[in-house]
Amino acid sequence: MNCPTCNQPMDTSLDDSIVRNHKTGQEYDKQWYVCKSDDIWVTVESPRNKAEEKEALLQA
Q1: What is the pLDDT of residues 4-53, one digit of tens each?
Q2: What is the reported pTM?
Q3: Do 39 and 18 touch, CB atoms closer than 8 A?
Q4: If phi over 0 gives left and psi between -120 and 50 gives alpha, with beta otherwise, what is residue 42?
Q5: First-residue to last-residue Cα distance in the chain
Q6: How far apart are CA 5 and CA 26, in angstroms?
Q7: Which residues contact 8 (CB under 8 A, 6 or more apart)?
Q8: I need a surface site. Which of 6, 16, 23, 30 has the fewest CB within 10 A?
Q9: pLDDT band at 59 (very low <50, low <70, confident <90, very high)
């Protein structure tokens, strides 16, 4: 993802996590993107795929 201000590639934060919508039970992958030169932070939450969940459980 590129920074909306300087159009340079943004770094991915190491604190990727999984969040859950408590009303629906749907899980989301949460990713942080950081542009250190412009001090811009972007958070993206995308729905987790059930196949990814099964694969993650099998690898654990």
Answers
A1: 999 999 998 766 688 888 898 889 888 899 999 999 999 988 888 765 65
A2: 0.62
A3: no
A4: beta
A5: 29
A6: 32
A7: 2, 35, 37
A8: 23
A9: low
